[in-house]
Structure formats: structure tokens, C-alpha cells
Amino acid sequence: MRPLDYPKMMFSFHAGWDELCVIHPSIVKISLGLVLPLSLVPALMIALTGYLHSDYYEPGVALQRWYDVAGLFFLAELATVPLMAGIIHLIAKDKGHSIRFHDSYMLAAVTPIPLWLSALSLLLPNLLFNAVIGVAGLVASASLLYHGVSTILGIEESLDVQDVTYKVLSVGAIAWGLLVALAVLPTMGM
Q1: d(CA 140, CA 111)
Q2: What does the pLDDT look like over 7-39, one tens digit per residue?
């Protein structure tokens, strides 16, 4: 799958999605080729923010604290993807759909790409800009989730797609909020 397909995937049920279904990468390949490198982006940005802009966010916080939070954030991200895959699987199963865990995992790995990339906004030390980009990442992820539920999971009934998307997005937004809270820890002096 080409990186240029990702923006199309937010607005289409087929562009990029069909190719992903054909490629059907293994969970290991998804984890090593997508989840691991993209999970590093926010963690590295937290560490870099602590190094370059810690005085903007919270003066006096030790650099090691930023590094510790970055490492913890990275581990939490890695744990969140299989957890969300399990939640997607359970919600779809609860709606009466028989899907494979692999497909749930693939969707859980593709959906947070905009959130991972939104961490690049930390290069500019501006809370409003960071918040706007973070919310834009959440909206883009919601769109990916909606289109992926239909295509990756093969759920065709419109109301079921909306219901599964809404439930997964609700749990995912809570998980995202907890991850953001974790990232904000250095600025709280905790």
C-alpha cells in the first residue's frame, strides 16, 4: 500500500482499502512495518519537545522526566493497538458479525495513523496549534474507522457500520484521552 493512499482512505470505501485487503499483511508485518515505527513518532516528539521546548510547556521540569514519559507513552501506544483490535472484534461480534481478529487488528493499526502523525505539531510550541492538529487527527481517524469498518470488516448494513464505528470511536476517544493525559504529565509536575 502506498502512503499516498492514506488520505484517500478517509473519504472512500475502496481507494486504498481494497489494496490493503488484497495485500492482507500478517499481524507481525503490520506491527513491525506500521505500528512500531508510527508509534515512535509521538514518543520521539515528546522527548524532542522536552529537549527543545520544555520551558514553553512547563519551566523547571527535568529533561529526564520528559524522556521517561516518552518511553511510557510509547509502551502504552504499543499496548493500545491490540487492545483496540480486541474491542473492535468484540463490538462487531456483538452486532452479529463474524470477523477475524486479524481484520480487527489491521483496522486498529490503520485508524490511528492521523493521531500518530498529529504529534509532529509539537515541533511548533503553540498549545492552540497542537490542540487543533490533535483534534484534526482525531476527526481523520474517525473517518478512517468509519470507512474501514465497512471495507476491512465487511460490514455492509449502513446502520451496523455507524453503530460499530460509534462504539469503537467512543472507546478509542477515551483511550486517546488517556494517552494525551499521559503525554501531558511532565507539564503537571507529577
Answers
A1: 8
A2: 788 888 778 888 888 888 999 999 999 999 999
